[in-house]
Amino acid sequence: MGFHICHLCGSMEQQPGHRFPPTSSGDTVLLFENGHAYTIPDMILHYVFDHGWQPPEVFVNDVLYNNLVPMRHLGRCGPVPEQVGYLEGMITTGDIPEGFVDRLEAYMKAADDSGQRMQTRGL
């Protein structure tokens, strides 16, 4: 976790045609009803939508076909979240299923609203 600038853009400035900012200052934890849990950076939407990054298939399926579970229902014995979307070096691109970005964005907002987002303080 920490402040990051997209290494593909190399700038804090949002590029023409990009939908999401090329910066990240926090992480979000998503827990799904099937028990899968993920920690993802704010910038995951930028990577997927603006650069065509192909997330792992299991993550895509969880976003598309499972519902979120609030972390507060787990207590301290919940699953350890897998990290997804922390890119370094080359990325794998591919076709993103229709509705994936919008659903992930909604899940990230819902998780943020319920306190499942950790913000880095300062730059």
Description of the structure:
A 4-stranded mixed beta sheet has the order 5-4-3-6. A two-stranded antiparallel ribbon has the order 1-2. The protein has 3 helices and 6 strands; from the N terminus they run ββββααβαβ. It is 25% helix and 16% strand. The protein is of the alpha+beta class and 123 residues long. A hairpin with a 5-residue loop joins strand 3 (26-31) and strand 4.
Percent range for β-strand residues:
15-25%
From the spread of the alpha carbons, the general shape counts as globular
The strand count comes to 6
Low-confidence stretches: none
Q: In sequence order, what are the helices and strands, one letter per element?
A: EEEEHHEHE
